Fold this protein.
Amino acid sequence: MSHIVISRKWRPQTFTEVIGQEHITRSLVNSIKTNRVAHAYLFSGPRGVGKTTVARILAKALNCENGPTPEPCNQCPSCKEITTGRDIDVIEIDGASNRGIDEIRSLRERILLAPVRGRYKVYIIDEVHMLTTEAFNALLKTLEEPPPYVVFIFATTRPEKVPTTILSRCLHFQFGRVAVEMIVERLKGIISKESVDADEDALYYIARKSEGCVRDAESLLEQMIAFSEGRITLELVQNLLEVGGLERAITVAERVLAGDVRGALEEVKGFQDEGGSVRHLYDTLIDLFHKIMLVKTGIDDTSVLNISDSQVEKLKAISEGVDISDVFAVQDSLVSIKADYLRGVGAEVALDMAIIRGGRLVKGLPISMIESLGIEGIVANTGRMLKLRMNTSGSITAEQPGVAVKKSSPESKTIKGGNIWSEILNIMKGKSMQVWGILNDAKFIGIEGGKLRIGFTSSKEFHIERMNDMSSKRLVMDAYKSLTGDDIEIEVSVMKSDDGEGTSEEVKKDKNIDETIQRELRRFGGRIISGG
């Protein structure tokens, strides 16, 4: 006897066996119990989530010898033949290959014939959106007034392509993607029946890879069983499906949160050398830092995080002792810089830059030093760790490999320029997003006579009013004191025109500087310096 694949062998045969679609199965069960079965149903949703499976179960429930019943026996001849696809009263049609008007006319003629054995004649039309306009029109009258013994069940992944005249005559059920936790439980049940051992982490990886499609998960499991020779491990799954993945992302995150930027960049380079997709790693890191933020707030439910218990413990371990504002800063760097590589900078360059700009976690290295480097510095040094040094004026230049990073001196914190302002903005981001947003529209004028002076154009009336409020000023004053140890007053002034929001004149005058670099320099009050 030929081998039956897992997705067919363990296909749900009753409503209770269907996972992730309880809102639909409950409605169908209740309609059968109350004898309120509709004459036409439309099942829509992604591939592999149970549309055709539920259609067959509904057909069995209607034609079971013990029915109509919400629990088909699966033992009578009718149930058995529907399960194997041989029942003469349940007709399955592929809409993609039977899409013309001639096929629908033939179907209309057969509909007039009463069922041979069952109570109902059930027509299951898969991918119904593939029918032509003429075919839909030919079906319209029959669908509006079908014989009492006919039930139509349409299935589609593209409900928007089904004419509204058809939609309005059907009871529409929308199938959703199945949660990772539910898929894992189903895979556990299957490997138990198949006498196969598997690591829980491996099953979670398969479930995540399937993106909510149960059939995809079962097909991947079938592939793993064929290759594993008895035991499915996470390493095996990763090697077969994709190099690296979540485990590599966890390692990168661990390096960044520990302040080891060099190690994080080396992990990315190693991942790329092994043939991994940096774009995939980038997206995984964004999702991972979101999970770390949830863990830091006390959420450790695997059904919410969609990772295994052991991976939850890893996230707890690597984020222990790390402030949630630091996690947010790295996540913000990843998300904001992603837009740059979508505009053509490149995934590798963007990820390097995001990791380095998460530099508030690099021991002794202020975020303003990293941010002032901008895209130009990252592009020029792709593929290796950037070494930074402070020159006597407090600016940043790219240094040759092997030169140690020096901690910023207290003097660099108190300079009346972009560094201190960038630090204040960075602190505001963690304390008040509203004040942070307002300050981003301000021009930093300078620090003089114990006053930190900022200005707004006359059109920024709300900003001026908000920053003249003492509670807003207090936030900025506290931020300044935490950086320098000194008290400061905040002076808000109104400017006649917008003169660049702190951009240095040399940046505005140099038309040859890339627009992206200019944006970064304007944002952080930086300036271009020559290396050396």
Residues 361-418, 498-512 have pLDDT under 50 and may be disordered.
